[in-house]
Design goal:
Layout lengths: L1 H58 L2 H9 L3 H28 L9 H10 L2 H17 L3 H24 L4 H23 L12 H36 L1 H36 L7 H34 L4 H11 L2 H16 L3 H53 L2
């Protein structure tokens, strides 16, 4: 019961932060939809989606690996964190170069899209710093500090965005507000880490960094495959149908994705407790896992019903008018909530049990399945196909996870 209370408290703080960031996201989407239409919305959301892949790469699963290693070893946390920060800053700088350098090779990279990515690319470094700070907030169960940092940066980014909109700046220039918001998040997070240590400077250690990559790559590969199969449809849709269709789809997906942070928040709080209580022996933690799973099923079912019912009103509230297809897309996506909620739990159980290769196989198969179906059906059914294939793919992932976890118990 005490563990569930802690999970609830930490999830609550994360939800507060998500409420702020979601409101900001929807205000931004609404302003873009009203000022630039489906085409402009497609360019902006596609650029943000593209950068999000590099955000995930900058994470590279380091936090989960380091948290396992330093749990209950307070004397090692500070030095480990400084070396991690140095590794992340170096790695994210490389990713900035890759994100921009690969643009000429993508079939969906229009001049406006490429310029938008260029203006927003340095946010990759800021995101990497914030994620590194979150290791401390997560290990000490102080997500309130993470929420403070993200909320301050998000509100500042929104203020700059509104200012640029009023000055009639183009879509690519609006990405400057996106970048400034992330920079503020990183700066505030570093200041809050100083609550625990006065010195927060990074230390770059080549040997440490190399070992970190060697030990973390299976988690990173799994998370990358997860996000690529999660959002490959937007890039395929852009290539085949154009950015206007992406705009319609991504408005619906923004609402869908906002709901999906709930299981992520729950697992952010549950994973450290899982490590502390079990010392990696998951079978001794069955009752707590069952209770979390039941809670996820109930909450996801309720959310599916609510989002399906209210999707026309939600889309109209965000965009004003002209995005009727987004409502239908959101209704289809809402059927996927139960699968996404449970698969988040199963994935972190597999991480705790060090089932890295099995996870890699699961998400590789999911990615192949997703991409093949999208290429077959998007030409005829556009964003409707992308929505349905997203749901089907996640149920396939969930089934494979459940089968492997059952086998691992024998």
């Amino acid at each position: 019961m005490q563990n569930l209370l802690k999970i609830s408290q930490q999830t609550f703080w994360q939800l507060i932060g998500k409420v702020v960031s979601s409101l900001t996201t929807f205000i931004v989407l609404g302003l873009i939809a009203r000022n630039f239409g489906e085409e402009g919305t497609g360019i902006y959301t596609l650029a943000v989606t593209y950068l999000a892949i590099f955000f995930l790469l900058s994470d590279f699963g380091f936090n989960a690996h380091v948290l396992r290693r330093v749990k209950n070893l307070e004397s090692r946390v500070k030095e480990e964190w400084q070396r991690l920060l140095g590794a992340r800053i170096m790695w994210s700088a490389v990713l900035v170069v890759l994100a921009v350098g690969l643009l000429p090779f993508w079939p969906f990279a229009t001049p406006e899209f490429s310029q938008a990515v260029l203006f927003g690319s340095l946010a990759i470094v800021a995101s990497a710093v914030f994620v590194t700070c979150n290791l401390i907030f997560q290990s000490k169960l102080r997500y309130d500090l993470s929420v403070i940092a993200s909320s301050i940066g998000t509100v500042l980014g929104l203020a700059v965005f509104v200012y640029l909109i009023l000055l009639k700046y183009s879509i690519p220039h609006l990405m400057l507000a996106y970048f400034l918001g992330w920079m503020m998040i990183a700066v505030v997070a570093l200041l809050l880490v100083r609550k625990f240590w006065r010195v927060v400077f990074p230390i770059y250690d080549q040997r440490y960094t190399t070992n970190l990559f060697k030990t973390s790559w299976p988690i990173a590969a799994t998370l990358l495959l997860n996000v690529v199969y999660f959002r490959a449809d937007a890039f395929i849709l852009s290539t085949i149908k154009g950015t206007a269709q992406v705009g319609i789809y991504n408005v619906a997906y923004s609402v869908f994705q906002t709901v999906l942070v709930l299981p992520t928040f729950i697992m952010n709080a549950f994973y450290p407790m899982m490590l502390e209580t079990l010392k990696f022996q998951i079978d001794r933690f069955k009752n707590q896992i069952r209770m979390v799973a039941l809670g996820l099923i109930v909450v996801s079912a309720i959310l599916s019903f609510v989002i399906f019912t209210l999707s026309p009103q939600l889309i109209k509230l965000i965009t004003g008018s002209g995005f009727g297809g987004s409502s239908i897309s959101l209704q289809i996506l809402s059927f996927g909530f139960p699968a996404y909620f449970l698969s988040a739990l199963f994935m972190w159980i597999m991480v705790a049990k060090k089932m890295y290769k099995q996870m890699l196989i699961i998400y590789s198969l999911g990615l192949i399945f997703n991409i093949i179906l999208n290429f077959i059906y998007i030409p005829q059914y556009s964003f409707m196909a992308a929505s349905l294939i997203t749901v089907i793919s996640e149920y396939l992932i969930l089934i494979m996870q459940a089968v492997l976890l059952l086998i691992s118990r024998k």
